Amino acid sequence: MNECRFRAVYPLLLSIALLLAPIRIFADDAKPQQVRVLVSQTTSALPFLLMARESALPGIDLKVDFFANHAQALALLLRGETDLLLSGTSQGWENHLDGSPIVMLDTGVWGISSLVGRDPSIKGFADLKGKRIAIPFPGSPLDFQSRALLSFEKLDPDRDVTISFGPFAQSVQRLLAGQLDAAALPEPLATMVVRKNGLLRLVQYSQAWARLTGGDGQSPQVSLFATQGYARDHAALIALVISAWDAASRRVTAAPAQAAAQFAAALIVDPPILEEAARNTLLSVPSPAENKARVLAYYQAVSKYFPAGPRPLDERFFFVP
């Protein structure tokens, strides 16, 4: 998702504060419990923006803030300066494996990225032999998933393809300059460069993953996290959040044009682009038990492609209220 100070949250955010402010529906003499959640400025945020706008949690003041840097956002979570963090699934498990008290509550995004480029002959990962592709950084979610997909197509990621690393904005510039054949980009950036720069959506990661699994295109991409202590002390609240998140995700999926009209300003994207980006984002919130099974299966499939090799992911990482 470039480094910048947390809460230098992009120019238009303050001007849309009223849009994000929850509409409270509790009694005048009741003080709402505030729940703070940090989200990235991508389509993954749409359900939480909807929840905050419509007060989906009665008696709860849901405060949604954007972050631009995961490490800074994680530090705020660990210091108790935010309650929940919606971020990359693998970033959560990496922090847990490194000893952080972070736990996963559930996953809400199961597909959000595409390979974008100019060459219409690239219709899948099998067509990338001899090609130059860009990925955000070594060990990133798009790195190990891309390597798994290339290996499935009988390509050696280190020999048959030239992989370079860099921030998304840099990759787009190199793509436009003809220095790359394809770049892995998340939504809404993927749709934005297709619409505005005349590039092609060569292949969606969800479609490529479906080839690998035999039909299931869903892979855990963005999940909701808390600290173990907060989750333990707020189990009932977390169950309510997950239920409301599920309902909001279904609404965004069913009416992406409406969601785009409501939150295009928040994400600083034109509504038609955000609508298409939402249609290319797989939003789904399974039960925590199903999520645990699916994440563990995915981890097993991709962990061999981690730069440092696989490490066992213990079940304490998953909080089931």
- Overall helicity: 40-55%
**CATH topology of the largest domain, anyone?**
D-Maltodextrin-Binding Protein, domain 2
> Largest beta sheet: what is the strand line-up?
2-1-3-10-4
Strand content: 15-25%
Tally of contiguous helical segments: 13
**Into how many domains do the coordinates divide?**
2
Please provide a written account of the structure.
The protein is α/β, with parallel strands linked by helices and 321 residues long. The chain folds into 2 domains: 14-111 and 219-317, 3-Layer(aba) Sandwich (D-Maltodextrin-Binding Protein, domain 2), CATH 3.40.190.10; 113-213, 3-Layer(aba) Sandwich (D-Maltodextrin-Binding Protein, domain 2). It contains 13 helices and 10 strands. It has helices at residues 17-20, 46-53, 70-78, 89-97, 141-152, 168-176, 189-197, 205-213, 228-233, 235-254, 256-267, 271-279, 288-302, and strands at 33-40, 60-67, 84-88, 102-109, 113-117, 132-135, 162-165, 182-186, 200-204, 222-227. It has a 5-stranded mixed β-sheet with strand order 2-1-3-10-4, sandwiched between helices. The chain has a 5-stranded mixed β-sheet with strand order 7-6-8-5-9. The longest helix is centred in the C-terminal third of the chain and has 20 residues, at 235-254. The two termini are 29 Å apart.
